[in-house]
Amino acid sequence: MSSTLLEVTRSAHEEVERMERLIVKDLQNEPNSNKDRLFQSHRVRNMIDSIISTTDKLVEIYEDKDNARKDEIAALGGQTATGTNVFSAFYDRLKEIREYHRKHPAARVVDANEEYEGLLKEEPMIEFSGEEAFGRYLDLHELFNQFINSKFGDPSTEYAAYLDVFSQPHKIPRKQKLTRQYREYMENLLEYLIYSFQRTEPLQDLDRIFSKVVTEFEEQWANGKVEGWENKGPENGHVPAQHTVIDLDYYSTVEELMEVGPEKLKEALAALGLKTGGTVQQRAERLFLTKHTPLEKLDKKHFAKGSRVLQQNGAAAAVQQDDNSKEIALMEAKMIKLCDLLDETIARTKDNIVKKQALTYEEIEAEREEEETQADTESDDDEQQIYNPLKLPMGWDGKPIPYWLYKLHGLGQEFKCEICGNYSYWGRRAFERHFKEWRHQHGMRCLGIPNTKNFNEITSIEEAKDLWKKIQERQGVNKWRPDLEEEYEDKEGNIYNKKTYTDLQRQGLI
Description:
The protein is mostly helical. It is built from 23 helices and four strands.
């Protein structure tokens, strides 16, 4: 019954709203592991793509380029060629509905919610290599082999060191970046990083990230501030040294240039449209002229026949070379941005490589299986309710302590302290320790009683007060009285207490 255009429009809106609810419902569930997080992200990404495709269809329907929607609305309103007849349009539509149900008497209403709820349990297929360990690490071995077997790479570089180097293209000389080999390497590296980022972070908008990178790059390129590409254009009308096969900046005399060999000199001369014949010295002299003299000012006798076109198009070749440099520099900028986004993954990859160098193959496989099973058991443990019928205290691991340990420490015995506000302490050890803790000290301070050893094991307020009175009384009997107990000695050596000594002194007897 969804043959009409309006019904298609209605069902499309319903599908979009249902997808939006499913996305909200899915994102409300906190994933337990990295695997579950990836599945959730890819489910949401697929639903977003479905919403985008459906809304594109809706936009096309509402644009109504063929006037089909307009004609259908007019037909529902009973507008015909002869006039407007609402009742005839109504009964024609009713007849169509009855005819449909007569042909399909067993048609049942399908609950779309059940079908869409199944999407929340879906586990999308995500392609990862064994080295990537389901998105935890990067697999750059193929690019590493391409790097060490190239002219711009160091053959002695190890894979662990390559993980530090590949994100720093500014360390590679510029003349080596303009080769086809480097361009292919950078394209492959950028393609892999994009593919890896899309698999591990499917909800990120990579187009928006790259548009920001391009904007910043264009500004830096115009100012000549791109790292590694500071001098990007031809200088003083010269053909850039990278345009030739040989970089003349490295050679100061013709004799040094002759050491390159006749074949390379011939290729360099042919690239510039110059004559390629003669001895090695003649070729070197002819090529060395281009180091300080623009091609436009060279004598015609140095050019080969039919090569004037190359001379005239020297400026065009320089522009093309500049565009090629800009494309490579932009790829480097995108690659550096992706390395920043994948910084944690690259760090984990480095740690994993260093750890693997100290393990055997069997140990590596066992550790990988242990990580997978640990992730599964952690998710299962979170879902299961802890069984604790004896109400045992929880240990450091979040599980009940053993029963024998519970009995050993007497944790089933309760001690109440009235001074602490009838607070309960479980176990003799906790009870004895609490006399030095802040709660008991605060209670004694409120009673105006010093918290000394004399009051250990006293938990009742009345008992503490009675004991404090007795201590005060005992201190009163044994209190030192200076008038009677302080001694004085006269000149003759006679000993008197303070009171007697002062009385005799007043009478002048001493």
